[in-house]
Each structure stands twice: as structure tokens, then as C-alpha cells.
């Protein structure tokens, strides 16, 4: 428990009602989607960057670790208060400050929920593509800090590609702006992109300038069932090799189909062992042509059935299948380790084969689905922790999955980040020299190691 | 002149023939497109990253400044050896190592010339969009270091948006890789984007992993003449407000038209005071519809004439007009200060009015053309340095142009960078705190201030 002098100082900064030390309240800020728990000593609810600046200066003076937090929906523990100290939540900073239709730019506070923002811009015919699965509750500040992805990234890129500028509070408490609201800008180092995906270790995001696109006129969704995972994986390569980049190119393996079949009323013909959900978007007339072309070129790859949605309701029904995956997995086993390796997309068949071998070798069920279009697979290792030895098996399997992805020229994480969950595996992916280069940056910017210490292996 | 001991050590690293101290040779590496001259003491031609690593270690041990250089085509002096010392040129590292058609990824050495690379990938139906005006001679390494732009960036983004990973030699001589060849990756800090546009101050780029796109099926070019610059500027906003993002959206003001008319056989009707060159690309059938739609919505804005190219030759003829601009400017006055401010595109009319007022106030001709679609204007202040007082007038005008752009929410540089040319103006754009954050990064990574000292104001 922090000294009452410090609590009082925090109250002076943000007001009495915006500082919490009540245990029940602290508990709410002690976990994220990793289901790990670390109790903070205090939770602070600032509503301006000036308040955050004063908080950071106090934290530096008193050497109290600070853990910035959006919605706490991260999968790797980026927002967990691993060192006690202070959680600074941006949930009160939830205003959309501007949607500029002439320049296709929006300015928001970090606490705005992603889906809410998407709906607002879509009302005026604009489009914010990044669509992490958590979009109903995750915040844009968290999305930027983690560089969130999602199905549409195969065509549209990740969060980083839409961030033009930021206001941040530095680890030592300065308020700075990076980038701006122009489409181009090369004055000084690109701190904006450096902040994206830095997982709250280099600054607290207090304002975000976002680039928008015109909303595509229409979209067309198709669900294709294959007789083998190999066929589906080859279809991904084939589509791209034919110079078509669909808006989404999602896949599910046979085990995922089994789970979904149990959980929903999905009718799947016998012999379907993999699914691709393909969505194309753009000019209405163009879409039919593109969907037909896709159906044609993938036909020889073991297609069992192709369903093309003709109405928005039919499209929604197809997506419902994809969305039901996460919940339905629990039917396999109660505990899930959700990894998100990414490989060059042509290596997808190799990666899936490797994962199958790993699952067999360790006797743990592994369920694969995800963003096949950009080679980003969600590898779900399903165990029951209560059974002795299962956790160790899962851990060995995870390490082998990471090594397998790296052998194929891939990465341990396409969109979830490192946080605390993958920090131990970092030496598999980054050389000591590369890690040292990153650590030097952290140390230079956060000499007291106040901001999110213990994350992404950047400890001073 | 460097000690012969050091010259010998360099010869040992790269071989006798790859170290130059001959004055005539040094002269070739003393200038860039700024037409300023700084003599290096030695020029080194490495061909591997290992050699560059050894060079950097030697430079640190001996405290010799190192100036990496691509083609020396930069407009702000980024490659100029301002502090004597060593020019390290990457011109021998000019191999395209891989074009991976399955994954739409290429790997190149930094010395590959941009246009040559574009032609190679286009042969297999792929597309590398960034198209700086210097593309016939500038190198990809230089493009990454400066984050080069070009006309197509309005739709496709800048160089940074296509760089997935890098191999770099750090200022202290380590060889590190950043990013990778996957479409997504969030392990550790994003050093790849940090390097893009860092103007050779944080590392020497030795390998580049590039994301490619499918080559658009077709394109359609139109040239539209307006009776006022205001009409043309409004047309830009109108097109974007109608949710159309053309591949290019270039403009020229009345003075530019006058120059081009003198230099080429361009036939322009009386009363045409501004030009837009608009190119749309994509599916063939879709293009006609889009071009017609554009013509329709901009018609009320004072359009004098619209020319739509029906063949590639006609398209080429329209582009030839745009390309002849730079050379034809010299007709106005012998000395050119080429700035590249960028404003939110809706502020284009305001910015042009400001520039006209500045030109009138100081009695210097200012010729404007450039990438209207993303608000990036090339502001060319044309003087004759030999006339006393002209240079001072130009300098005052430049500062006012920068201030004007910043007042409108813009930036001093959309694509040329800071280098030495704009370093003095940095306090206009960046606060002391933002600058300090950048300087801390430089100091942490280059403690001896060896790599490109004196650039982008990052002096230790």
C-alpha cells in the first residue's frame, strides 16, 4: 500500500473521486485477457494529459511504477500491474474530438472504444479498417499501444498504418506531440510509429490523430469448405499469387470446425476439414467478377462446397460462424493458450503440418484458426490445467510452435505483442544486439524505469 | 586528411581499390541536390554489412564521423559530409536478392536504383508504388533513409508503408535485423519504421525487405485546366470529399504553366491558371466510371478544359508536361529554393493564398506545383543569388512559408526531410520537449556521435 502522502498528492492532481485504493476496485484493474492477476496499489483515473504529466512527474520523484491501461483486453499482459504501483486508466478520456471529412482525419482521446469509433465514422461514409476481435470493448489507445490487427489487415494493414500523429506523456512527464494531421511528414524521427506497438513502455498516449479511408461501396462474403487444411492453405497462396488481395481471408482448421459445429447449427458436409471465409470489398459491380474469379482459381484445391452470401444478412450469418470460434473452443478443454504466430503466407501449409506434429508429439489438442491472408495464425493449445503435467506439456508445445514459426521466417507474434506472456521467449526471435538497441531506447527515455517496467523484456 | 594508419585500416576492410582519397574522386561525393559542397577526407565503397560493421567500429575507436550515402540525390543535404570524415557509399551493394511472388515480398540491397527495382517487379505483375521524382537515379536505401514520397503516395502511402524489415549496422557497429518478411509482427519496438526517415542518423541500412502489391490492371490519366488556382485546390477537396482517392492528384499553378509553356509545346488555352493531373488506377472497366465521376463533380469549379488520355502514349504525353516542370523553372531565375511543405489538403487554397502574399511582399517569384492530393506542395522560390539582397529576401520568404504551413496545421517537410537545409527551422515545428525526446534516442544509440553528425538537429 502506497504512503498516504502519495495518495493525497494523486488526489490533488485528479480529484478525490478519481483515485481508488479500495480493494474491490483494485481487483477490477488487476487482470486482463491473459487471466493472470497482479494487484495494483492504486488506480488513478485522469481526464487530461496535464494530469497524466503531473502523475508521471510524481511517479518519477517517488519511484513508483506506472501501468497505463485501456480496456485491459490484451492477450499478453501489457497492461498488468506486475510491479504493484499505479494503474493509470484512460477510460475517462473517451471523446471523439473531431471527424474531418475534408481531410479524412479524425482526432480521438485514447479511451474511445474501437467499434464505437468505427460506427461514428461509417455514419459519414468513412472507414477505419483495423478490426481486432476485441473491438466491442478494446480502446483505440490500447490498439495503438499494442498495434492491434484483425481480419481486414490482410488488405488494409494494421493499426499503425492509420496513425498519423499522437500526443503522449513521456516517461518523465513531458507532454509532447508526434507527427501531425498531414498525410506526409518527415520532420525529425518518427516517434509516432515508434510508439505504436511499444506496449505502453515509452509513453502514455493521450490523443490520437487517425487517418481514415472512404468506406468501400459494398462487400461480398464467401465461405469455402475444403477437404484438407493443405488445400485451404494453398488456396490462400493461389489467391494472392493471382494478384487478388481480398479484404479478409480467414481460415479455420478441422478441429475448429468440429468445435463450431457443436456450438452452433452450422451445417457442414462430411469430409470438410478446413474453411476459408473470404470477403472482397469495393465497387459493387467489380465484386461479383472478383468473387467468381476466386471461386474459379481455388476450385482444383479440394473445394467441397462454396457458399456466397447474397445479402447482408447472409454475410452476417457466415461471419457469425467465425465469431463463435473462441467461445466454442472451451468444449475441447477448459484452459486455452492463445498464441498468434505469423509466417510468410506461402509457408502456411508447412506451419500447419508442423503444428499437427507438435500436437501429436505432446498429446495436446491444438486448434488453429485466424488470419490466413497475412499468415497470422491463432494457435490455441487446449489443456486442463488441473491435470498434472498438462501445463508443462503446453509450455513445451508453445516453445516448439514459436521455434517452428521462426524457422519458416516468421515471428512469435503478429498482433498480440510480447507483454509478459512472451518476454521469456524473446531470445528465440531477437539477437542480443537487436534487443540491446531496443533497451538503449527505453533506458534513454525512461531512466528511472517507471513506465510499465517488466514488459517486453525492456527492463533497465 | 586522415592519418595513413586509418586509411590503411580501411583498405584492409574493403580492399585497396575501394578506398578513395584522390581529390577528384572526393569531389564527386562532396555534393548532393542542394548544390552545397563539403569535402570528405575519404570515400569507402563497402560491399557487405560485415565490412560496414568493421568500418563503424573503426570510426568509433578513432572518432571519425561517418556519412552514409546512396545516390546523393537528396534535397536537404542528408548525405553531405558536413564534418569531413568518411563517406560510406552503398553504391556497390546494388543487388535485388529476391522477388517472392507467393508472398509479395522482395529483398534488396540498399544501392538498388528505385526505378530499376520497379521495372523488375512489374515484369512479374507486381508493384512498388513510391515514386520520388529522383527515381531514375535515387537508391532504395536513400529512399528508406529519407522516407521518400512521390505522386502516387496520395493513394498508396510513402516509402515507410512498404518497408517490412531491415538489416542495419548500428552507429556502434553491430549488425542487427529489424522486422521481418511477414505482413505483421509486433515483437519488440518497431525499429524498422524508426529507421525510415531517420536520414542516416541511427544506422546504416544494408538490406531492405519490401512489401509489394499486385500491379493494378490499368490506369487512366486526365489533365484538367482551371481558370483559378482556387478552383483547382477546391477540386482536390471535392474529389476526396466524394470518397474518391485517385492514384495521383498533382497540381501546377499559373506560373508553373507559364514556365512549362515556354519549355515545351504544351498548348494551353488563355485563361488557364492552374492544372490538375489526375490518374486513377485499378480494374479497367471501373476506371472509365471513376474518371467520368471526377470530371462531373469538379466541373462547376472553373474547369476550362479536360483532356483524358485514351492510350498509354497519350497518358505519357500528359505526364511529360508534369516532368518538364523542374527543368523549365530555370527560365524564371537561375537559383531555386525547393521547399516541400505539407498541409491538410483542405487548407490548400489558404496556403496558396498565403504563398502569393509572401511572394508579393518580398518581390520574389514563387512557383508552386506538387502533390496536391496529400497537401504536399513544392514551393519553389526563384532568385538570382548574384543580385545583392536576393538571397536574404528568399530566406525571409522561406521562413514565412514554413510558418504559414504550420499555422494551417501542416509541416515544413512532406518528403524531403530536414538534413542541414531545414535544421535551423526545427524550433518552428517541434517543441523543445519533442526535440529532446528525439535527441535522447540519438544519444543512446550513437554515444560518440559518429553517424551523420550535424544532421536533423540531433547533435549530441
UniProtKB/TrEMBL annotation, chains A, B:
Its cofactor is FAD. This is FAD-binding protein. It comes from the Bacteria. Belongs to the FAD-binding oxidoreductase/transferase type 4 family. SUPFAM superfamilies: FAD-binding/transporter-associated domain-like, FAD-linked oxidases, C-terminal domain. InterPro entries: FAD-bd_oxidored_4_C, FAD-bd_PCMH, FAD-bd_PCMH-like_sf, FAD-bd_PCMH_sub1, FAD-bd_PCMH_sub2, FAD-linked_Oxase-like_C, FAD-linked_OxidoTrans_Type4, Oxid_FAD_bind_N. Residues 36-215 form the FAD-binding PCMH-type domain. It comes from Geoalkalibacter subterraneus. GO terms for molecular function: FAD binding; oxidoreductase activity. Keywords: FAD, Flavoprotein, Oxidoreductase.
Amino acid at each position: 500500500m502506497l504512503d498516504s502522502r502519495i495518495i493525497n498528492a494523486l488526489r490533488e492532481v485528479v480529484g478525490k473521486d478519481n483515485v481508488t485504493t479500495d480493494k474491490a476496485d483494485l481487483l477490477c484493474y488487476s487482470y486482463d485477457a491473459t487471466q493472470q492477476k497482479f494487484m495494483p496499489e492504486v488506480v488513478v483515473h485522469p481526464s487530461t494529459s496535464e494530469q497524466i504529466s503531473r502523475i508521471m512527474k510524481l511517479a518519477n520523484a517517488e519511484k513508483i511504477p506506472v501501468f497505463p491501461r485501456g480496456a485491459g483486453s490484451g492477450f499478453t499482459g501489457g497492461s498488468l500491474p506486475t510491479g504493484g504501483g499505479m494503474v493509470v486508466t484512460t477510460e475517462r478520456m473517451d471523446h471523439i474530438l473531431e471527424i474531418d471529412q475534408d481531410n479524412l482525419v479524425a482526432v480521438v482521446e485514447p479511451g474511445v472504444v474501437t467499434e464505437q469509433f468505427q460506427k461514428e465514422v461509417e455514419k459519414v461514409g468513412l472507414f477505419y479498417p483495423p478490426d481486432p476481435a476485441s473491438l466491442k470493448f478494446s480502446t483505440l489507445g490500447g490498439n495503438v499501444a499494442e498495434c492491434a490487427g484483425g481480419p481486414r489487415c490482410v488488405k488494409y494493414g494494421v493499426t499503425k498504418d492509420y496513425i498519423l500523429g499522437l500526443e503522449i506523456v513521456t516517461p518523465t512527464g513531458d507532454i509532447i506531440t508526434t507527427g501531425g494531421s498531414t498525410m506526409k511528414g518527415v520532420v525529425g524521427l518518427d516517434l509516432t510509429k515508434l510508439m505504436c506497438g511499444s506496449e505502453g513502455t515509452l509513453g502514455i498516449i493521450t490523443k490520437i490523430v487517425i487517418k481514415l479511408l472512404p468506406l468501400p461501396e459494398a462487400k461480398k462474403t464467401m465461405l469455402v469448405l475444403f477437404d484438407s487444411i493443405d488445400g485451404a492453405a494453398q488456396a490462400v497462396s493461389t489467391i494472392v499469387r493471382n494478384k487478388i488481395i481480398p479484404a479478409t481471408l480467414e481460415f479455420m482448421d478441422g478441429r475448429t470446425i468440429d468445435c463450431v459445429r457443436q456450438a452452433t447449427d452450422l451445417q457442414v458436409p462430411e469430409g470438410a476439414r478446413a474453411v476459408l471465409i473470404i470477403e472482397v470489398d469495393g465497387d459493387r459491380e467489380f465484386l461479383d467478377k472478383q468473387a467468381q474469379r476466386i471461386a474459379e482459381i481455388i476450385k482444383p484445391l479440394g473445394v467441397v462446397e462454396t457458399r456466397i452470401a447474397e445479402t447482408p444478412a447472409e454475410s452476417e450469418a457466415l461471419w457469425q460462424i467465425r465469431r463463435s470460434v473462441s467461445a466454442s473452443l472451451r468444449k475441447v478443454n477448459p484452459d486455452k493458450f492463445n498464441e498468434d504466430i505469423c509466417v510468410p503466407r506461402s509457408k502456411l501449409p508447412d506451419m500447419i503440418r508442423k503444428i499437427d506434429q507438435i500436437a501429436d508429439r505432446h498429446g495436446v489438442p491444438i486448434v488453429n484458426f485466424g488470419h490466413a491472408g497475412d499468415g497470422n495464425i491463432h494457435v490455441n493449445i487446449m489443456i486442463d490445467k488441473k491435470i498434472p503435467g498438462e501445463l508443462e506439456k503446453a509450455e513445451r508445445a508453445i516453445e516448439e510452435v514459436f521455434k517452428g514459426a521462426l524457422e519458416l521466417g516468421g515471428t512469435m507474434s503478429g498482433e498480440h505483442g510480447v507483454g509478459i506472456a512472451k518476454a521469456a521467449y524473446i531470445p528465440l526471435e531477437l539477437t542480443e544486439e537487436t534487443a540491446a538497441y531496443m533497451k538503449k531506447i527505453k533506458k534513454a527515455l525512461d531512466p528511472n524505469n517507471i513506465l510499465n517496467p517488466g514488459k517486453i523484456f525492456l527492463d533497465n
